[in-house]
Amino acid sequence: MDSKIKYVHTGKAGGRRYSATGGRASTGRAASAAPHPPRATKSSYTASGAQGTRPATRVAHQTRANTYVPRRPRRRRSLKPVLAVLAVIALAAGVGCWYFKFRNITVAVNGQSVTTHVNTTIETLLADNDNFGVTPGRLLSVGGNVLDEQGGDVCAVKRGDEAVAAKDFATTTVSDGDALTVENGADATEPNHEEEVELPCAIQSEGHGAVQYVSQWGKPGKKIVAVGETSGETVDKEIVEEATDMVVTSKNLSPKGGKYVAITFDDGPSDYTQQILDILEEKGAKATFYNLGENAQNKPKLTKAVVDGGHELASHTMAHKNLPKLDRDSLRNEITTAFDALKEASGETTQMIRAPYGAFTATEWARSGDIVSCNVLWNIDTLDWKRPGADAITAAALDGVKNGSIILMHDGGGNREQDVEALPAIIDELQNQGYKLVTVSKLMELDGSIPDEVIENKVKLPEGSVLPEA
Ligand code: NI
Questions:
Q1: Is 410 a catalytic residue?
Q2: Where residue 69 falls among pLDDT bands split at 50, 70, 90?
Q3: Both 26 and 119 in a single domain?
Q4: 437 C-alpha vs ligand 1 centroid, how far in Å?
Q5: What residues does 228 pair with on adjacent strands?
Q6: pLDDT tens for each residue of 436-464
Q7: Is 208 designated active site?
Q8: Considering 311, 316, 320, 410, which one is annotated as catalytic?
Q9: Residue 59: its pLDDT value, please?
């Protein structure tokens, strides 16, 4: 032992510093100053307050001028078990994930086994297998026309006996052991929407006979139609309210209370008209004259003379056109201008016509039924325009005559000498047979079945009614 070494108290409990030599106390450099630092030995001890009183002799055994305070080694826990558990959990999760999301399953499609993953949708199954070779349906318009040869359902799928709608392919998954049937796709219809539209009325004709008039006015109905979004086509879906058709009735007249006939003259007035008026007056007979508007404009005094003689004045249209060959506006113009011409010449208002050639079809009624009270044809055609001779004309006029007959003759349109010659005999014979010669309106009045507005020339389209499209 080196006797020169002594220790000093540093004032700190347990803290000691060594002074190397010369008795000088060193405080900061004691350890490094020691020539031979001691090894940490078991003999070293940590001074404490209590130990501070230990004998110096014991300290004298210290060979190093340093204090070494060993830490008690901490016992470390191992992470291995935890990691092992985590690994197991992760593995289990992975396996579970695979099992529930990716494990293979087998389904039967059209009797053939197909392997796929669990949770596969029908859409994916079809795509992965090229739709199993089936043909898609077509995309049709609402009217049934093909818009796209392959625009319909991709295919028709049944799971077991249950059909799966095409719209559900993407959300329906298959299960292990499913039996699927995949067939050609059904046709699909383009997207469409419904609208309520007017249901147009049509025109009907009923009966047969010389006098034609509107017996029922048309009214539109309502219907639901489907309108194709792509095609624009419109298809009837449902009738909400039936339309009421316009009805034109044709009938022969049966005057009550006696025997009546009506002699009628077309194509005037002409230079023969006055002679005819004179004969009628002499015989006490009334007749009906279907004047052409143009002739009434040319010979207004004769047209006026017809009315003044107590006869009936009606229209044979303006210029003797074949009315079914006219469009709607021309037809109405041909009719109204003639009425105006007759009114201008005579002061009389009429809505009665005799269509040239008798040609007035349902189409003409649909186009002008609101301005025509009646179209008057004939029961007996004298064929006077062929100029067969007065006797032949007379014979024809009397052939088959009966109560309510309307007899056709002409006071214009050519040479009417034979008409003038035949007329007295015709009237005499009819009167001898007990017939009274009256106007067509009088025949209608005596018939009793013709609406008053027709007889009185007061026809108009009732409120809420419409003419059919024509
Ligand atoms: Ni004529």
A1: yes
A2: low
A3: no
A4: 21
A5: 192
A6: 999 999 999 999 999 999 999 999 999 99
A7: no
A8: 410
A9: 47
Residue type at position 125? L
433: left (phi over 0), alpha (psi -120 to 50) or beta: alpha
Domain boundary among 189, 206, 241: 189
277 three-class SS: helix
Number of domains comprising the chain = 3
Q: How far is the CA of 267 from the centre of ligand 1 (A)?
A: 5
Say if residue 323 is in the same domain as residue 440: yes
**Contact partners, residue 280, CB within 8 Å, separation at least 6:** 286, 287, 309, 311, 423, 427, 437
Q: How far is the CA of 10 from the centre of ligand 1 (A)?
A: 155
The residue range of the domain holding 107 is: 88-189
User: Which position has the token pair 């070779």?
Assistant: 133
Query: In angstroms, what is the span from residue 316 Cα to ligand 1's centroid?
Result: 7
Distance 54 CA to ligand 1 centre (A): 162
Neighbours of ion ligand 1 (CB under 5 A): 266-267, 356
CA of 469 to the centre of ligand 1 (A): 28
Cα(108) to ligand 1 centroid in Å equals 84
Instruction: Please state, in angstroms and rounded to a whole number, the distance separating the CA atoms of residues 296 and 458.
Output: 22
Same domain for 156 and 286, yes or no, is: no
pLDDT band at 95 (very low <50, low <70, confident <90, very high): confident
208 is a domain residue: no
- Asked whether residue 73 is assigned to any structural domain, the reply reads no
The size of the chain, in residues, is 470
DSSP string of 240-295?
Answer: EEPPBPEEEEEE----SSSEEEEEEEES---TTHHHHHHHHHHHT--EEEEE-HHH
Q: What is the pLDDT of residue 15?
A: 41
In 10 A of CB 241, how many CB atoms?
Answer: 13
Digit-coded pLDDT (tens) for 393-429: 999 999 999 999 999 999 999 999 999 999 999 999 9
